[in-house]
Each structure stands twice: as C-alpha cells, then as structure tokens.
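Thread amino acids onto this structure.
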C-alpha cells in the first residue's frame, strides 16, 4: 500500500491534468450516487409516488392505500423505537421535533410556514402549495393516522395540537 501510494502520488504530481480529471470524475460519481440514494429514500414506487416526501419519514412499502398506516410520533428517539417495531409493509413512521404549532387560528398561507406542519402535510399527501378550503383528501397516502405521544403533559399537549390541525385543516 505504501509503495502504491508513493508512486501514485509522484505520478499525479508530474501529471496534474490527469489528477484533476480523476478528481472531477470521482466528484461527479459521488454526486450521482448521493442523488440516487436520496431518490431511493424519498420516493415510494407505484400509485402513491410523491417526489417531495420529508426526510424523516420512514415510509411503508405497500402500494395499497387501504391497508397503510402513518404513525406520527413525538421525537426522534420514539421515532427510532417505532421504526424498529413497525411492520415495514404497511406501517410508516414520521417523528416530529418538538411541539407542532397551534393551528386553530391559522389560515392556509401561514399554516405551512412551520416545518413540522409541512412535513405532516407532505407525508399525508396534502398538496401544501394549493391553499384551498376544504383540502382535497382524494390523494391521501394513508388510510389511518395514528398519534403516538408520551403519557405526560407534553404528550397530551402534542396530541391536542395535532388533533386541532386535523380537525381545522
């Protein structure tokens, strides 16, 4: 390894144009691999495909919307536990950071300024760019939405805030 490293270093020092070409090719391939990885993580193949899924969403593999469930969980720690315990075929998990915003008095233009609310909308399949009333529910990605929160005051508050979001909007 040491001999190859030394010889390769000497060669690239003498032929800088070759070194630059190798470097540019490696960077291009790295960017292509990263783009392909992101595409695999964020797109569910089939009828339920959406190009803009939140990065925290651990999606399910089923294409049958009638049998799918989305678990909205309180925090990344609970999200990790829920991801390990779920059935990947039909159960998706979306961990939230902190408490979602109180949306009772929000209108459509201010509703999606909150990243957690936008992530929920993207995961559920609501077009957050179209500010219509009522929301078009024909393209929902999941049959059931399940809220998992801690059995404490903060967990109860998160449940109420999420229920308010779903009831009002």
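Threaded sequence (169 positions):
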């Amino acid at each position: 390894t040491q001999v190859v490293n030394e010889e390769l270093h000497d060669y690239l020092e003498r032929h800088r144009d070759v070194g630059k070409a190798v470097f540019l090719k490696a960077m291009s391939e790295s960017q292509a691999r990263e783009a392909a990885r992101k595409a695999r993580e964020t797109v569910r193949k089939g009828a339920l495909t959406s190009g803009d899924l939140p990065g925290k969403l651990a999606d399910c593999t089923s294409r049958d919307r009638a049998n799918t469930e989305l678990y909205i969980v309180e925090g990344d720690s609970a999200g990790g536990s829920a991801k390990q315990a779920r059935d990947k075929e039909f159960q998706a998990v979306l961990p939230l950071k902190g408490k979602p915003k109180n949306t009772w008095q929000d209108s459509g233009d201010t509703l999606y300024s909150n990243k957690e609310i936008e992530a929920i909308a993207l995961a559920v399949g609501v077009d957050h760019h179209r500010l219509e009333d009522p929301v078009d529910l024909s393209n929902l990605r999941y049959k059931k939405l399940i809220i998992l929160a801690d059995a404490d005051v903060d967990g109860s508050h998160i449940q109420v805030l999420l229920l308010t979001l779903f009831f009002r909007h």
